[in-house]
TrEMBL record:
InterPro entries associated with the record: AB_hydrolase_1 (IPR000073), AB_hydrolase_fold (IPR029058), AB_hydrolase_sf (IPR050266)
Superkingdom as given in the UniProt entry: Eukaryota
Protein's recorded name: AB hydrolase-1 domain-containing protein
Residue ranges annotated for the AB hydrolase-1 domain, each copy included: 29-136
Length: 202
């Protein structure tokens, strides 16, 4: 497994952003941004295949992996993590960098490039079609219902999750929901499980 150089947290107004790096700290900078309900763990198999001559830094999007969630309240738009990407770029003192993204990270990269043109030297987007399909919606009433009204109609269930799993049940649930092998599910859960007791996880 590719050796992790460093794991640390960047302080944000709402809490902390989890960062992790691999490769050569003096190499060309590469930022990796994961998809919805994932974490930087999804990039580990890919990183095993990439050369060590680059400086890879990945972040857990707020509320994912080891990054703190945003406060419960108003629904935040999916464009919000664009600000977080810029916070990480400023923290790393990167004026220009390569961007590798998966799923929702693709959408964020497109927005980031529009808001901060010239910062992304090259972009590599993996499996972005499901995430950007919503940008093609032309029925704005349906868009509003899907992304806002349904949120407030189901506010309590969305913002409260009392489900507790054994580790085995958590792995099985991820395998079923995402059609993954047990090894893949274990990898996904390395940063997404919070232990709350003896074989009890959220």
């Amino acid at each position: 497994m590719k050796k992790v150089l460093k794991e640390w947290f960047l302080k944000a107004p709402w809490g902390k952003i989890a960062l992790i790096s691999w490769g050569d700290p003096n190499g060309e900078p590469v930022l990796l941004v994961h998809g919805r309900q994932d974490s930087v763990s999804t990039f580990i198999p890919l990183l095993e295949l990439l050369p060590d001559t680059y400086h890879y830094v990945a972040m857990d999007i707020p509320g994912n992996g080891l990054s703190d969630p945003l406060p419960i309240g108003l629904k935040l738009t999916r464009i919000f993590p664009v600000v977080v990407i810029e916070m990480v770029a400023e923290h790393m003192n990167w004026r220009e960098f390569i961007y590798i993204a998966h799923s929702m990270g693709t959408e964020l990269g497109l927005f980031y490039n529009a808001v901060y043109p010239g910062n992304l030297k090259r972009c590599i987007y993996l499996d972005g079609a499901p995430a950007i399909q919503r940008l093609l919606m032309t029925d704005y009433a349906a868009y509003y219902k899907t992304f806002y009204l349904d949120y407030y109609d189901n506010y309590d269930s969305i913002n409260t999750d009392d489900r507790v799993y054994s580790r085995r049940d958590a792995v099985r649930a991820v395998m079923k929901a995402r059609s993954l092998t047990s090894d893949q599910a274990e990898l996904i859960l390395t940063r997404n499980l919070k232990k709350i007791g003896d074989d009890k996880y959220k």
